[in-house]
Amino acid sequence: MAVSERQFNLLKEMGIPLWQTRSSSVAKHDAQQEDANSLTINFATLSKNQLFIDILSSINLSIGEVSCDHNCLNLGLFNWVFSASPDVTLYNNVLTTPSLDELAQSPQLKSLLWQNICEYKIS
Question: How confident is the model at residue 8 (pLDDT cuts 50, 70, 90)?
Answer without folding.
Answer: confident
